[in-house]
Every structure is written in structure tokens, then in C-alpha cells.
Amino acid sequence: GLETKENFIKSFGLERSTCYSQGISLISMLVTTSYFLHLFYTAVAVYGSVSILTWDIVYHFYFLVFLAGIAGAVFCRSRASEYSFLPESFERRKSFRLFFHAVMIFCMAMPLVLLIQYAYTVDFQAQGRYILPGIVPFMYYTAMGWQKLVCRQKVPRALQNILFAALLFCIAAALLIMVYVSALPVYRQAPVL
């Protein structure tokens, strides 16, 4: 890790330029470099050496899915156990619920905080693969939010089923577009080593 970096600097006299070493503030790095936009794109679908992007509509679709899900999880009120996937005995105790959600938020935030610190001080990379440990709790809240948005309203069961089927169809279509339309044609043109 750091010993290798120090040996590299001693051997070649070169140090990797970072925002920190250039005197750029952390806030400036996050705002002026479109850091979060690049992080989102690479977490959703960027292939190759961060050079193969998919259609813009795929990124917009996923942004809306995530935004609606998180908004539903945060803003839609419900009884504690009505839309939870936790056991009922766990849900009855408020302290356990608070602990559960605190741990989930920590698990989402920690990979992001570590990535930002690493990008600022060591090696600027806005790559979504580094935040994937936080995807499980993030998707828990996204799914819970969608369930609250659709099921809490007085929407008929048939319409709920149609909405969720359409959402799953769009997710599957986005996957097919990402792999077979965006990435595979580029990989087929690449020479075999």
C-alpha cells in the first residue's frame, strides 16, 4: 500500500497528483468534477476501462427508480411493521428498529465516505464498483419505498401488479440494452489476445 507508493516516489521521483496535493478543497472536488454523476454512471453501467457507456435513457430510468424508491421510504408514513421485511418480534421494539436502521445507514454511508476520502487523498477515481458493499441496504430502502408508494395508496391490486410488472420489464429491458446493445458490440470488435 503506502510503502509501495513511497518506494515508487523514491525510485522515479514522481508522485501522483491528487486534489489534496494540489490544494483543492474536498467540496470543490465534489462539485467541480461531477464526482457524484460519474459515480452514479459507473455504478449503474459503464464497461471497458470506463469508456463504454449505455444509452442516456437507461441512466435516467435508474435515477428515477432510485429517487422514487428512496422518496417513498423516507416520506411515506406507515405503521412500523406494515411495509417491513423484519420479523414481527423485532418490529415491536422501537430500540431494535432504530438500531437496524442505524446499521443500514452506516453500511450505505461507509463505502461512500471511504471512497471519497481515497479519491481526495490518494487516487481520484469515481468508480461505482467501490460503493457496491452499500448496495444491499440501498436496495432494501428502494424496494421498501416502492412498496410504500404503490401499496399505501388506494390503488387496486390489479393495477399494483401491472405497475410492478412494468417496472420489472423495464429493468430487464435496461439490462438487455446495457449488455447486448452497448457493451457486446464493442467487445466483439476487440481482437482476441
The biggest beta sheet reads: 2 strands, antiparallel
- Work out the radius of gyration: 21 Å
H/E element sequence: HHHEEHHHHH
Beta-strand content bin: under 5%
Low-confidence stretches at least 5 residues in length (pLDDT < 50)? none
Distance separating the two termini: 30 Å
Count, helices: 8
Structural class: mainly alpha
Q: What is the overall shape?
A: globular
How many E strands? Answer: 2
Secondary structure: helix percent = 55-70%
Average predicted local confidence, pLDDT: 84
Spatial order of the strands forming the largest sheet: 1-2
Describe the protein:
This protein is mostly helical. 68% of the residues lie in helices and 2% in strands. It is built from eight helices and two strands; from the N terminus they run αααββααααα. A two-stranded antiparallel sheet has the order 1-2. A hairpin with a 4-residue loop joins β1 and β2. α4 packs across α7 and α6 crosses α7. The longest helix has 33 residues. It is globular, with a radius of gyration of 21 Å. The model has no long low-confidence stretch (mean pLDDT 84).
